[in-house]
Every structure is written in C-alpha cells, then in structure tokens.
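W.,

You were right to be curious about this one. When I first looked at the sequence I had no strong expectations either way, so I just let the prediction run and decided to look at it fresh. Below is the sequence, 464 residues in total, followed by the output.
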Amino acid sequence: MARAPETRGWGTRVPELIATGNDAGGASPSLRPRAPCRPFPGGAPSKTGMTAGRGLRGRSSGVHGTVTGSCLDEPRCLADDFGACDAPHVSRSRSSPHAVSMPPTRLLVFAALLTVRAVDLFGSPGLAAQERSPEVVATQLAAVYGKQLEQTAYIPALPLIAKLRLSQLTGRPEPADEVGRMLEPFLRGERDPVPKSGSEQAGHLIFAAMADRCAGEDRGRWIALCRQAADQIFAPDGTPLPLMPFHNEMSDAVFMAGPILAATGRLTGERRYFDAAALHLQSMRQLCLRPDGLYRHSPQCDAAWGRGNGFPALGLALALTDWPLDHPARPELIEHLRHHLRALLRHQDADTGCWRQVIDEPSSYLEYSCTCMIGFAIQRGIGEGWLEASQFRPAADAAWRAVEGRTSPAGLLVNVCTGTGKQKTLEDYLTRPAIQGRDDRGGAMGLLFAVERLAADVREQGGR
C-alpha cells in the first residue's frame, strides 16, 4: 500500500470530520484550530450541494497555503491548522512562511466543511464512526438508489442488479419486487431498447440478471434484450469486430462490453460471444494497458484515472464470473486480472484503504467510486478463487472500511468524481470535480460493493 509523506491529508480526515461535527463544542480536539480565528469575510459558503474541483483533499502543485486575508488574524495554512496538511510548505512571502496561493475551489470546500455537522450527512453525531455490516449499508443504499430505469444505462441498472442479489442473499422479497415492477414494460415489449452508447450496452446487464430469475417465455424475452446489446460486436457476416462499437478508445469499455458479452454467452450457450469478448478485451489492453500494469484512461493521455482503472477491474471480474472453464482465453484473463490488481495494491492508501482520483498521483484526492469498483473486483476474485486470500483480503477489508466510513445512512457520499470523458492532460484529471452528498454513480458502485461483501459474509457463515 502507498503511504503519503506525513500520512495525513484532507481526504483521510473527512469521515472523522463529518462524524464528530464542528459546531460549538462538537469538534474533536484534533480538528479544532490551534488558535482562535475570526470568520471568513462574508461568511462561509453554503454546505448544500457541494462540488469541489479538487476534492476534499486539494492539490496545488503539492503545496498547501492560504489566500491572504481569508483569516483576519494571519495568513496560514488552513489545512495544517486542522492537523490535516501532509503537503510541504514553501515560503512565497517574507511576511509569512505559509503565504502560498490557495485555489478558490479548495478554499470554498474547506470552508464548507467547517459548517457541516454530523447530523447533516449521518443523521446523528458520531454515527459514521459506528461500524455497520455490509447488509446494513446495502439496505440503506438500496433505499436511496435504483429507483428508476428511464434510460437503460449502467448507472441506473447496476443498483437494480444489486437489489436482486440483495433479495436473494437476505430472503427479503421487497428489493426484487421493486425491480420487477420497474422492468414490466420491458418484459411486455412496450420498451425495446437498442444501445446507442457503451453505457447503454452495459445497462443491458439488468436483463441478464432478470433472465437468471425466470424460465420459459419470460426468460427468452430477457435474453433477446441481452442480444440487442451483445450482437453489436458482430459484423453483418457474423465475424466479431476487434472492438465493440462505442468503445471511444477508453478503458471504460472493458466494463461496458465485456460483461454483457460474457453474460449473453452463458445464457445462450453460444461460444461466439466469449470469442468476441476475448478479442475485445485483448484490443482494449493494447490500447490502454501501461507497462506498469495500470490502465491509462485512453491513448490521448497516459494518466491512470481512478475509475479508468476501476472499470477494467470491475468489468473483467464480472466477465470472468460467466466465463466457461474450458475456454482457452480464461487462464490468460485470470492472470491479467491478477496482474492489474497487484499493480493497484501498490497504490492503495495505507491510512484509509482508498484509491485516488489518479491512481499513482499521491496529491490527488481519495476517490469513492473507484475504491468501490476495485474493492468489488478483489472481493469477487477472492470468492472465486482467482486471487490468493492471504495477499488480497487485507486490501479488500481496507477498501470496505473506507467505503463504509464514507457512506452515510441516508446514502450521502464523500468524494465521487463526476462523469469524465477522455481528457488531454494529467491536470485535467486532477481537477475533475468531486461530488459530495448524493450521487447516482457513486451510490450504484457502493451498493454493488456492499452486496458483494454481504455475499462473502453469507459464504463464510455457510449460507442462510
């Protein structure tokens, strides 16, 4: 695991800050300023709907500082006042060793953090510090996310898949019944979506999950919907294309195409889907896999974006779950998953268990969604026997603690990178906004990971 210098940063302190509160008398001693400081001119910004361009742990060329005048007593490093600054300080002014320019987005989000109370995110002070089981977290997230399928895309579809599995694991029918009601128009043929993007191809995974629960004509209908996505990889003469359409040269396409091809192959028994998936996955490695085992997001920039590595990890884990034992590509795919996850282990934050917005950039913020995706892949790999538990379980456990501590009972989340297409520079990835609060993408990934952890608990207990 990676350990940043001095090991404490804004992102690593977020759960503690939220859990303890910060109104009068509510802040932890370790989080109180060392000296009285008069308010920011004009007051602190609103705490609602916060989005920070640099996350809850900022970045300014690795240096923290203040805007002169933000504190009426003296210019100093705000993050350091709260024991939360792990970046080196350099002198840019004779009047103060800490008079370094702070980006406005960082100042705004830090000031906003000072106004957030525990009750705002977690319902009651200290609740975030109480460890919750995967079943509890999954149930809480399921109450918030997966409430509609207006577009057959991966973000609304994944929580529905997780809810079906949550019902199976807990014996509670309500989550699956809710999903079934939402999908009735698809079953009746009133909605017959044909994917127009990679996201919509991956969204068709919900139909594979429904096919597994059905028989007869209903099962046939769900499989037909799966084919509408999977068949897009074939040329008119039936030969597989080297890459699934809509791949956009982005590592996301490992997830967008691989699992739906494998699921359709399993449901139909047709080997051609696995052959096509193997070719697609090989082509994606040629485009995006770096020599160090991490994925660049696209050939346009070598940056190892967080979700740009989460998508390949999650996608390959899901595809391998459906892969035939006797298919010649299977051993190579398992070895590739191991290689990728070993590379990721080197960059897991040692203090928090998170991965970062840019995996190998220590100054980038700790990011929620990629931590869920990588954590899921590791947990699935352990459960399926692809990964050695002795090597990988500590990483899965640390990732779960990170996600659980950054997920409120109301489904509010910390540091979810906003939607991101391929960027031109490393700096473009470093400055992508981090969403605080409710986020459908983050909620989908959190719910998926929580249910995977629940499945591991059920296996260890010998089933229910």
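Here's what jumped out at me. The CA atoms of residues 134 and 450 lie 5 Å apart. And, maybe more interesting for your project: Confidence is low (pLDDT under 50) at residues 4-54, 56-120, 123-128.

Coffee later to discuss?

I.
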